[in-house]
């Protein structure tokens, strides 16, 4: 199936939510268990939270759309804690679509959406070695580690990766 990367819209919220629930369970159930993952999905990926990301002025929310299905999503926004830095908050591809280049295509588009940014940063769950490897292939390298991925008191350790951007 062919997917085209485009900006997310209000009408995509339910498809995005379903994709995030599916990919979170496929990715994180082995590490944290289905109950903890269901809690994360419920709190982090509510329709209201997705809508807020879609309309955020200093962010970009993209979907890979086949016309009938959303195969992947990506969301990045300027990082207020660090000048000229973009935080890649989400890049998820439906498990059945992984390995088809959708994540790479979404990332390539996100990389161009912030012309004044010099660095892109991403936090990855420490146990998610597949994602760490993916980001390293895209040119990211480890700059830090943290104990609370996704928010305070999560208890989920993470690695922080950065990539210089070539925007001019």
From TrEMBL:
- Which Gene3D superfamilies has this protein been placed in? 3.40.630.30
Q: Which UniProt keywords apply?
A: Acyltransferase, Transferase
Q: Where is the N-acetyltransferase domain?
A: 3-166
Any keyword Signal?
A: no
Know the name of this protein? GNAT family N-acetyltransferase
Organism encoding this protein: Pseudorhizobium endolithicum
